[in-house]
Amino acid sequence: MNIAEIKKFLSKLNLKIILGLVLLIGGILLVVQSLFVAKRNSSPPFTVETKEGKYFSVPTFFPILKYFHYTFSKNGDFWIAHYLDEKKKESLARIYPPKPIGTETDDILCRLWEDLARVVSNHAPPNSLFIGWWDISQRLKLFTGQEVWIENYDSTVIPQKVNFLFEEIFGAPLETGKLAILAKAYNSTASEGLEMLKQALPKNRALFVCVSAEDISNLALAFGKTPYEMGFEMRIFPLSGSDIHGSIPTVMKWVNEKQSASFFLQQLPTQAILAWRADKRAQETLLGRLLPLTSSLKNPLAGVKLLYQSTWGGYIQIYKIE
């Protein structure tokens, strides 16, 4: 891939989408951009530092053996935790360190995943199976010890131009076809998508689907598109007053610019609000119905029961498939 092709690929992601990706998927876009450059230069624009598992304490189900800390020359960093699962297989997951090692956003996400793990531990029966995007599933397995349906990314789903980038950081892909089924289900109407999952999933198991705001960008990447092309748009609004409510009129003005749109919000640590807007088609997809969009809150999806929803703007939620 030459420089012109790289620029064309990245130009599809405008500044707002880039910011949203960095905020919501922990810098994977930064990985993509940096490793494209790294293939053309002898010295990569990031450093990797190994730390012992006790370098910082996070209450995961499996003990962490070591961390790989990626620091980028331009901006940003992230942590990959390595551990042995119940079968003594080496596994990994993207993890958010608490303060003072992590940022304010990292600290919030770390505490959310701790909270999620407590809820799963108290309410998920022993025969549970969790369904979620590959990176979310990896993190869920590390924190809860639960069995996940999708263990890793599938190179047939991720755009070919970035396959080698994911392998560079996250190891070899696992091509089971399951991620393709989940992507198709998320992008189908809610009833069709839910039925698609039920047909693919094992019977006589307690089934839970874990959905995050990250999945908007994850799904777009799987189809080689931007969130905007999938019917989702995001915008950052300054916080008006002491809490999120003072900014609602400004947000609603933007939401109503698109006919029949719905939205959900997250208050950021930077005294700003992240708003996602979904058009009529997007809000009727399985992903749209599982996210805490205003349209979904007014008309909850039949066939699933909410088990958990995070306090931070519905960043992550878990549903039991009935």
TrEMBL record:
Keyword Membrane found: yes
Ranges that cross the membrane: 17-38
Superkingdom of the organism of origin: Bacteria
Alphabetical UniProt keywords: Membrane, Transmembrane, Transmembrane helix
Annotated InterPro entries: HaoB_nitrify
Protein name, UniProt field: Hydroxylamine oxidation protein HaoB
Phylogenetic classification of the source organism: Bacteria, Pseudomonadati, Verrucomicrobiota, Methylacidiphilae, Methylacidiphilales
